[in-house]
Amino acid sequence: MRSWLLLALTVGLAASISLAEITLVLLAAWLVFGPRPAAVPRAGWPLLGPLAAFAAWTLVAALASSRPVASLLAAKGLLTLGAFYVVLHALPDRAAARRFATGLFLAVSIVALLAVVQVGFCPPGGTVESGPLRLFFRKCARARGFFSIYMTLAGVLTLVLVSVLPRLARAGRSALWALPAWLAGVLALGLTQARGAWLGFAVGAVAGALTLRRRWLVLVALALVIAGTLAVEPGVLERLRTVGDLADDTARDRLAMLDAGLRLVRAHPVTGIGPGEVKRLYPAWATEEALRRSTSHLHDTPLQIVVERGIPGLAAWLAIWVAFFARAGRTLSRIPAGDEESRGLVLGSMAAIAAFLVAGLFEYNFGDTEVLLVALALMALPFAVARDLDAAEADGGRSAGGT
User: Fold this and answer.
1) CB of 328 closer than 8 Å to CB of 294
2) CA atoms within 13 A on the CB side of 152
């Protein structure tokens, strides 16, 4: 039962938020009411302190806002954080974690290939008006797969492609079958034309590659597929040229959001304005330079967090990631020499979360449920490895005691 639910979850994370959420609920119910094999060690509740602190301060910020009921309803996204524990408790060992990560990569690779087709056969107007493929080819000028918008596909691709890179490189010839799928994913990422995701991917991929023995092979392959993407789709090159251009309309609008956000923080430094309140207050705080007079978020995750929850909320949010990297780093140091699969799982998870945080400087990806669910699922992998290491050390201790 658990294996089938995990399979459904990988498909949902790659293509359908509804399937992912339903599967997570079923997995949670199975974990609570289903059988518990005695041989499987308990997963525990890692990161509970910072996650609970962030959730608690979010509720404080909601209650302190000018519209506490609406703000509390907007804070329901906190439930999404529980996906981390559902996935962690559903993965009994390193082998299950490896299968889950591989399945997620395969599912996302299929969606990436379809997204390339989506852009390649997109009509001049950017939308097919009628026919059985109308929904798939709606707003298809930029790759979006089965998601509602290209930024979501870009976020999911960034996380999964970066997370699998250390495993692919460390596996050598046995993983050659996966290289074309990975390169197709990079091509699809380019076709989303999401510059913030590109930067997150670049940081995560380079950071992951630098930990590998075959780093130059990985970097050369990455450079070749990027060059191919630029040659196939001129619009990608045009978007790339605007990175860092302060005269670009998008950059100007983001700077206006930054200005309004910082002024809101100065006005509400402790509890912020409350979750969900940016949409209501932004029109009154936006400067004349703002191209959009209304927005539900400020396209910057740390800025959005501090505006909604104040400085203590931002501190609690940062503590989650500090604790994650500290725990994952300790797990990495405990992995025995020669266990390349486990090392790849942990390194991939750390690189993916680094990419998630960098991309979040340009997009509120923490508020994109589809992207956040993938990030939380990948965060669980180092803790599944750590649980196996704990069990192996305990068995070794008992064996030594018996002798």
Assistant:
1) no
2) 18
Residue pair 191/237 in contact (Cβ under 8 Å)? The answer is no
Give the closest residue to 382 by CA, choosing from 328, 340, 330, 338.
328
Instruction: Flag whether pLDDT at 340 surpasses 80.
Output: yes
Query: In three state form, how does the secondary structure of 42-88 look?
Result: CCCCCCHHHHHHHHHHHHHHHHHCCCHHHHHHHHHHHHHHHHHHHHH
Per-residue pLDDT reduced to its tens digit, 302-317: 999 999 999 999 999 9
Question: How much is the pLDDT for 365?
Answer: 95
Quote the Cα angle for 172-178-179, to 5°: 75
Which of 330, 370, 371, 340 shows the shortest CA–CA distance to 353?
A: 371
Which two tokens mark 361?
């400087």
Measured between alpha carbons, how far is 384 from 240 in angstroms, rounded to an integer?
A: 38
CB atoms within 10 A of CB 135: 9
Q: How much is the average pLDDT of 73-99?
A: 94
Euclidean distance between CA atoms 209 and 187, whole angstroms: 18
pLDDT of res. 281? 94
| Three-state SS sequence of 117-170 | HHHHCCCCCCCCCCCCCCCCCCCCCCCCCCCCCHHHHHHHHHHHHHHHHHHHHH
Q: Which of the 8 DSSP states describes residue 41?
A: P
The Cα 190–Cα 182 span in angstroms is 13
